[in-house]
Amino acid sequence: MAAPATNGSLGLPVDAQITPATSIEYWTSISSTVDGMLGGFPQVSRIDIAGSRTFIVKLLRHSQPCPDLPPPHKVRLVTDTGAGIGRITVGLLSQIAQHVDVVEPIPKFTEQLKIDHPELFAGANPIIQNVVNTGLESWDPSQTEPPRLYDIIWNQWCLGHLTDKALIAYLRRLIPALSPHGWIVVKENVVNSKAENPKSSAKRKRVQPATKVDEMSDSNEVRQSVDLGDDEDEEPDLYDELDSSVTRTERKFDRIFRAAGLKVVKTEIQRGFGKDLGLYPVRMWGLQPATVPSGPQEGPVNGTVS
C-alpha cells in the first residue's frame, strides 16, 4: 500500500492543497452564463445534457423510486448540487421531476436562475421549492425541515472542491436523504492514464464556503489525508491552481464510494464531446447504498480502505 498521491513542491497530498477561499474567489469572478459555467466550452452543454438524460433513463429502468407517477414526471423530488445558474436543473432535472431543490454556494448564480426562469418558481407549488446557498462540505440534507427524501441527488463538476475526507463525509450524509430505490449520481472529469495529456477541462467546478486562506494554510484538518490504498503505479490526482480543485482518477472515485458506504450500480463514460477539444474524460456513476440505511451514517471518515 502506497502513501497518498502527492502533487506539487510542498509534498502535500493532492487534495490537501485545496483552498476554499481561492475557489470562492474564482467562481465569484466568473460570469453567470453557460459559457462561464463550462469554462469557455458552452458547446458541450447540449451533448452533456443528452448523455445525462440517457443515463437517468437507464438508472430508472434498473430501480424506479416512483413507479406510480403519471407522465411526463419520472421522479418526485431531486436536488441539483453545485447547481450554478441551473443549467442542469433547467435542461434536465425540472423536465423529469415534479420538484427540484437547488444547492449552490454562490448567491449571484442562483439569483440569475430566478431572473432567467421565473416560471420554475411560480405558483403555490413551484417546481423549484428550495434554494440553499451553501457549499457541499456544509450542506446536510437531514437538517431540512421538514425532512426531504430525494429520488435523485445530482452531483456534477463540483466534487473536485472537496478533499477526499470531506467528500466521503458528504456522500455519507446523502444516504439517509435518499428515498427507497433513490439514486446518487456523480458526473465528473477523471484522470485515466499517464498517456493522456488534455489541454483543458470543461468541468463545472464548484466550491464550498469561503475560509480565510491563512486559516486554511495553518489548519491541521486540511492537511490530513484519507488513506484510500492508492496504487504506486496509479496516475495521481491532478491539482488545478486556478480554482483550487482536484481531478481524481476513476480508481480513486471507486475507493471513495466504497469508503462512503455506496455501491456502483451503473457507470458510463460521456460520449460526444470530440477529441479536438482536448478535454478530460467525463464519467457518470449511478450509486446506491451498499446496505439499506437505518439512519445517519456514522464512524470515522478517514479510515483505511484496501
Automatic annotation (TrEMBL):
Spans annotated as Disordered: 195-243
One family name in Pfam for this protein: Methyltransf_PK
Gene Ontology biological process terms, A to Z: methylation
Tree of life domain: Eukaryota
Entry keyword annotation includes S-adenosyl-L-methionine: yes
Cellular component aspect of the GO annotation: cytoplasm
Presence of keyword S-adenosyl-L-methionine: yes
The reaction(s) this protein catalyses: N-terminal L-seryl-L-prolyl-L-lysyl-[protein] + 3 S-adenosyl-L-methionine = N-terminal N,N,N-trimethyl-L-seryl-L-prolyl-L-lysyl-[protein] + 3 S-adenosyl-L-homocysteine + 3 H(+); N-terminal L-prolyl-L-prolyl-L-lysyl-[protein] + 2 S-adenosyl-L-methionine = N-terminal N,N-dimethyl-L-prolyl-L-prolyl-L-lysyl-[protein] + 2 S-adenosyl-L-homocysteine + 2 H(+); N-terminal L-alanyl-L-prolyl-L-lysyl-[protein] + 3 S-adenosyl-L-methionine = N-terminal N,N,N-trimethyl-L-alanyl-L-prolyl-L-lysyl-[protein] + 3 S-adenosyl-L-homocysteine + 3 H(+)
Enzyme Commission number(s) from the entry: 2.1.1.244
Ranges annotated as biased composition (Acidic residues): 228-243
Keywords associated with the record: Methyltransferase, S-adenosyl-L-methionine, Transferase
GO molecular function: N-terminal protein N-methyltransferase activity
Binding site for S-adenosyl-L-methionine: 82, 87, 156
Family per similarity comment: Belongs to the methyltransferase superfamily. NTM1 family.
PANTHER family: AD-003 - RELATED, ALPHA N-TERMINAL PROTEIN METHYLTRANSFERASE 1
Protein name: Alpha N-terminal protein methyltransferase 1
Source organism per UniProt: Cyphellophora attinorum
